[in-house]
Design goal:
Elements (H helix, E strand, L loop, with lengths): L1 H37 L5
């Protein structure tokens, strides 16, 4: 049972790592775009 749990955690880690490599740039760019769209410089 313990090996199943370790294998499940390792599998989830690999999936999360792969998703972060694939989606990180898109999410990063989107967050910066949203931040600068809402930013109003002081007058």
């Amino acid at each position: 049972m313990k090996l199943h749990y370790i294998g499940l955690r390792a599998g989830v880690f690999v999936v999360a790592l792969g998703a972060s490599w694939k989606l990180a740039a898109e999410v990063d760019n989107s967050s910066y775009d949203e931040f600068f769209r809402l930013y109003e410089p002081p007058c």
